[in-house]
Please model this.
Amino acid sequence: MIKAAVIGHPISHSLSPLIHQYWFKKHNIDAVYHALDIAPADLNARVHALIDDGYAGFNVTVPHKQKIMQLCDDIDDTARAVGAVNTALIKQGRIIGCNTDAYGYIENIKNNAPSFDFRNKRALVLGAGGAARAVVYGLLDAGFSHITLTNRTQENAQILARDFKNVDVVDWNTREKACIDADLLTNTTVLGMKGQEELPMDLSYLPDHALVCDIVYKPLHTTLIRNAQARNLRTITGIGMLLHQARPAFAAWTNIWPDVDEALIDMITARALS
Ligand code: ATR
Model:
């Protein structure tokens, strides 16, 4: 039997078990996928217990995506470039750290805006946390020529920008005007998420052809997404990033590449809307 898990703190909100269990059932795989609440102080001991318990691997979520890197025996090129691990494989007792968030973010756009051409485009990215790192890496890797980054704490944006080429930082208070030449706008901050403050953002400077993405998926239609729709801009909600980032992880522990099918989208969307 394959054993996998998602580790985080808190973890009860995670939809990853539903996604992986859906695919295990669909592909008739004898497997379990647990949601494990692991406090930061217990990370080392609990992760080593997963090795002893014969786990094939685990997903990693807030707040462990960076700390887990210290426990990895090997880190793949993408995770190293992004600076965070969201998927860990266990092979012969060794932990291999990977990052599938950038893949999930780009694949979500490719699936929901198939005509969008990534080459030589400019983006405005809001936020400078772990999710912003995956988004910046994914956009540059997909062909974007320039990224403007803005974040409440400008220093965090500058630290992120130093790790990538073609990323400039602007003051958070100028974010609306910074939209003026953006082909794509992505919110990676927690603003707009259920229980958090709203994201104050006037979209009137954005060009008419711009694509607006929010990686927040609860609520599914954030104020940013609704304001963009009101302006007739193309929009991408965050649910697809969650679904697509799970695919390479599932393939890593089963050798089966799963699809994001309509039934899965409907099930997870219903949970995000509830
Ligand atoms: P994740 O790994 O999901 O990206 P994170 O690393 O905690 O999470 O990053 C959260 C992001 O939301 C950061 O860009 C953070 O800005 P700071 O670097 O200034 O902390 C941003 N954020 C959180 N609360 C915010 C708020 N009230 N206003 C603006 N930005 C906020």
